[in-house]
Amino acid sequence: MKILLDENLPHELRRLIAGHDVYTCRYMGWDGVQNGALLARASAAGFDALVTTDRGIEYEQNPGALAVGVLILHAKSNGIRHLRPLIPALLAALATSPARVVVRVG
């Protein structure tokens, strides 16, 4: 699965998502791109999912209109020590989540 990490997530999270092709917004040159445009770009670039901590994205956008799923990590902060415990649930969600849905993890 091809996954995009939102710019609000630490780069080191990338290597914890084993078994997937994981890219960051920075790597793609998409820093500062707003949610709607980011989802459109991710969809056009063949991404299957966007992983973020932005809880407002599900209310601001219509992921059902795109071919990309949105997984929202719910943690105390976006620090790696708070995100690391969510990795098993994130991997399980990635394995079972269809495109065009919003999944809350954590």
List the helices and strands and how they pair.
Elements: E1 2-5, E2 21-24, H1 25-28, H2 35-44, E3 49-52, H3 57-60, E4 69-73, H4 80-83, H5 87-96, E5 102-105
Parallel strand pairs: 1-2, 1-3, 3-4, 4-5
General description of the model:
The chain has 106 residues and is an alpha/beta fold. The protein has a single domain (2-105), classed as 3-Layer(aba) Sandwich (Rossmann fold), CATH 3.40.50. 30% of the residues lie in helices and 20% in strands. The protein contains five helices and five strands; from the N terminus they run ββααβαβααβ. The chain has a five-stranded parallel beta sheet with strand order 2-1-3-4-5. β3, α3 and β4 (69-73) form a beta-alpha-beta unit. The protein starts with a strand and ends with a strand.
What string, H for helix and E for strand, traces the elements in order? EEHHEHEHHE
Report the CATH topology name. Answer: Rossmann fold
Distance between the termini: 21 Å
**Structural class per helix/strand content?**
alpha/beta
Evaluate the radius of gyration: 12 Å
Shape: globular
- Across the major sheet, the strand order is 2-1-3-4-5
Please write the CATH class name.
Answer: Alpha Beta
